[in-house]
């Protein structure tokens, strides 16, 4: 169950990272409230997952999910560059996440 909590926490991390763009420097109330809510949920779920997972593994996977998801969403939503090097780097992060899962 810890991995489920960790995965959901990573998804909420993507949500708050993307949400930061929509807050426009925390000047828009609704996006700001949603972004802060996603931050809180993400950290709470990470904390729950870390009851059963090693902290290094849990934190690395959490940030990895957030990083990969945010990078992909940035390409889709904001037209961030999707160069071969960037996509290869995302692939390396995914390989690291899978490796940590397999070894835990």
From TrEMBL:
It is a multi-pass membrane protein. Keywords: Cell membrane, Membrane, Transmembrane, Transmembrane helix, Transport. It holds the Pfam family Multi_Drug_Res. The chain crosses the membrane at residues 33-50, 59-78, 84-103. It is found in: Cell membrane. Belongs to the drug/metabolite transporter (DMT) superfamily. Small multidrug resistance (SMR) (TC 2.A.7.1) family. Gdx/SugE subfamily. NCBIfam families: PRK11431.1. This is Guanidinium exporter. The gene is sugE.
């Amino acid at each position: 169950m810890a991995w489920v909590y960790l995965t959901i926490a990573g998804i909420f991390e993507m949500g708050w990272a993307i949400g930061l763009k929509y807050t426009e420097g925390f000047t828009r109330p609704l996006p700001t409230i949603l972004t802060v809510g996603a931050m809180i949920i993400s950290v709470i779920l990470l904390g729950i997952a870390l009851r059963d997972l090693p902290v290094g593994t849990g934190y690395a996977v959490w940030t990895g999910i957030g990083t990969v998801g945010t990078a992909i969403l940035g390409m889709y939503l904001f037209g961030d560059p999707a160069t071969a090097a960037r996509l290869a780097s995302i692939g390396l992060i995914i390989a690291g996440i899978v490796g940590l899962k397999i070894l835990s």
